UniProtKB/TrEMBL annotation:
Keyword annotations: Amino-acid biosynthesis, Aminotransferase, Arginine biosynthesis, Cytoplasm, Pyridoxal phosphate, Transferase
UniProt xrefs under PANTHER family: AMINOTRANSFERASE CLASS III, SUCCINYLORNITHINE TRANSAMINASE
Biological process according to GO: L-arginine biosynthetic process
Protein's name in the database: Acetylornithine aminotransferase
Native organism: Magnetospirillum molischianum DSM 120
Domain of life: Bacteria
Claim: rRNA processing is one of the keywords in the record: no
Length: 403
């Protein structure tokens, strides 16, 4: 089918018209159980009344207000976000990539302000994903995304995700900062160990470097902690957020300690749309719910429940499932089939939505408000779909045997 859209995406064919909670309904009235949540964006599911209410209320007042005027909702969002973590200041953008661009700029500017203009490079990791702008593509270092677009933006040194000595070897006199996702999402739900995160913190302190955590996918309660690093008992100097922050409304944030952001004076950064009144109204409504420790405890409990179900299914299909991994409601199923095959099979045979990732991993990212019944249903449908896939594999082997 030809379309007037730039063909960079290959969307599935069904048409969704509306959604509620963890469910999406097509124009034909078919209901799909969404355990992908728009890649962790629809953190509170679809049509959450508190979010809808916040948007409708702001909708009648003001949509856009230039940064040359104060936006009280934005000041409040910054105060609440920073009060809930290590940070002192926040900058709002429209997307994750932009939040990371801000993080990179803060780190470079910090070193410059400290009398080290030669320190401008950032150490990043094998399997990282930081976005699709020219700089964040280079930060991720994925050849698939970089090839054919000319020389990658300079200033990023890709390091193997191994031990701390390997990281030390990647650091040079030009290094300004280390940037990492506490749980790599795009490359296949690969959690970084808590001790490794703490070692990175120590290394940065030892060498005068800044530590940046990209929590765009793993943050905002996804792991059962408001921010994934909080479980590790350590903290970065700078952190980027987006995805779940707006519960479906586009907004990104870069939060930082005041010390790390010391170089960011008026005029050094900006955005026309970032943190507009609509976006911050919805993000504040998201915080009303996600800042609640009781909700986070529920995410941990439901994460354990989902994990137990997945381990159970994995035990029944040892030839199909290689590994189940992740934390909280950020889970991945590594299979012998490609993740796209599993995602397609779940969608077409079981009306269950999941998200493909690297390393043959199917991402399981239900909304944080998912119910126990929906988790049981998901496990049931996954089980049925894998039975189909394994039967298909058996027939293929049998057929090959005939020839
Ligand atoms: C999605 C994602 C990004 C990019 O966010 P966009 O809003 O698509 O620019 C960056 N880092 C991580 C970890 C992500 O998951």
């Amino acid at each position: 089918m030809t379309s007037a859209l730039l063909p960079v995406f290959q969307p599935a064919s069904m048409l969704f018209e509306h959604g509620e909670g963890a469910w999406l309904t097509t124009t034909d009235g078919e209901r799909y159980l969404d355990f992908g949540a728009g890649i962790a964006v629809n953190a509170l599911g679809y049509s959450h009344p508190h979010l809808v209410g916040a948007l409708e209320q702001q909708n009648r007042k003001l949509w856009h207000l230039s940064n040359v005027y104060r936006i009280p909702g934005r000041e409040r969002l910054a105060e609440r976000l920073t009060a809930a973590c290590f940070a002192d200041v926040a900058f709002f953008a429209n997307s994750g990539a932009e939040a990371n661009e801000c993080a990179i700029k803060i780190a470079r500017r910090y070193q410059d302000t400290c009398g080290h203009p030669e320190r401008w490079r950032i150490v990043t990791f094998d399997g990282a994903f930081h976005g699709r702008t020219l700089a964040t593509m280079a930060a991720g270092g994925n050849r698939k995304y970089l090839d054919g677009f000319g020389p990658a933006v300079d200033g990023f040194d890709l390091c193997p995700r191994k031990d701390i000595e390997a990281v030390r070897a990647c650091i040079g006199p030009q290094t300004a900062a280390i940037m990492i996702e506490p749980i790599q999402g795009e490359s296949g739900i690969r959690p970084v160990s808590h001790s490794f995160l703490r070692q990175l913190r120590n290394l940065c302190d030892e060498l005068g470097l800044l530590l940046i955590f990209d929590e765009i996918q793993c943050g905002m309660g996804r792991t059962g902690y408001l921010f994934a690093h909080q479980e590790a008992g350590t903290a970065p100097d700078i952190m980027s957020l987006a995805k779940g922050l707006g519960g479906g409304f586009p907004i990104g944030a870069c939060v930082s300690t005041r010390h790390a952001a010391r170089g960011m004076i008026p005029g050094t950064h900006g955005s026309t749309f970032g943190g507009n009144p609509l976006a911050v109204a919805v993000a504040n409504a998201v915080l009303d719910i996600v800042l609640d420790e009781a909700l986070l405890a529920e995410v941990r409990r439901k994460g354990d429940l989902a994990r137990a179900h997945l381990d159970d299914v994995a035990g029944r299909f040892p030839d199909l499932i290689v590994e189940v991994r992740g934390r909280g409601l950020m889970l991945g199923i590594k299979t012998t089939h490609t993740s796209q095959e599993v995602v397609d099979a779940l969608r077409t045979h079981a009306k269950v939505l999941t998200i493909a990732a690297g390393d043959n991993v199917t991402r399981v990212l239900p909304p944080l408000i998912v119910t126990d019944e929906e988790i049981h249903l998901f496990a049931e449908r996954l089980d049925q779909t894998l039975a189909l896939l394994s039967k298909r594999a058996e027939t293929q082997i049998a057929r090959q045997g005939h020839y």
